[in-house]
Amino acid sequence: MTSLKQLLTQEGFIQTNKLSKETKEIITSTSLPLSFQPNTQRVCSSSETSNSKSLVSPDSRREGPPMDEVAIRALISILSDYVGRYIKDSFFRKTLFVKCNSYLVRRKTSSESDNENETLVNMKHCLESIDKLVQNQGSTKKELKISFLRNSIELLTIIASLNSNSLQGATTCGIPNSHLSACGQLYMAILYKHQKNNRVCARHLMQVFCDAPFLARTYLVPEFWQHLFLPHLLHVKIWYIDEVETISDSNECDGEKEEKMKCLGRVYNNKVDIGTIMFALYYKQWLQVGTSEPSFPVVPLPTRP
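Structure tokens predicted for Putative E3 ubiquitin-protein ligase LIN N-terminal domain-containing protein:
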């Protein structure tokens, strides 16, 4: 198995002063399948895709041996260190706050219930309070901080529940519940990082990509997605680039090319979103206590539209 240090270097994680000293020591001494292994790095053909009833191959469903606790600690450190930037880096904190806060804007003005309005107002107030807590963390009394953290987690848990199975596809004030949930999960990760509960912090960060993969990878935390997820999905991106070139070089009229490009974009984004969810669930499985090593996801190429 390739060393964790080599894999993380390939994926852009190991950069000067980006990881804690403890994380770097763990990385040096262990291994973790954060990238394709030699026997799984295979691009599936379109015919394989069309004949497949699942995105995961039978071989990839096999559970591995019990997971190495040191490797799990490495993964937890990597994920929680990223969230920790919110606490340590004022520019990162402001950027993330502006992204989430600016997104919490009503998109319809009629037929809104009082509960919908209250949910949105409470969430915006919660994010503002978390931002102030982190900025003034040294001056807040311990009792008040504990009470605030507990109440904030309860509120954000309610927000996250808006994306439950029975409410998937629903909206609040015109905002998709999945998007509200993703923002809520991201700030719960921040709260648990603030409490030094790194394992739970890491799980909430991965849930962001499960709830709203497109929003997470293109708007909320695109640079993190590029480091952790894109290496697993490069074959899909290469396929997309090739298809774009094929359409561009064709002799079809501009109108037909435009329609094909739109269709291709939808197919590509859907496949990347599905792949992102698969790998987010894969990493979440790594974070569970007392479980076996999860099967490595296989994301086949899309069928040409």
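Residues 1-19, 22-62 have pLDDT under 50 and may be disordered.
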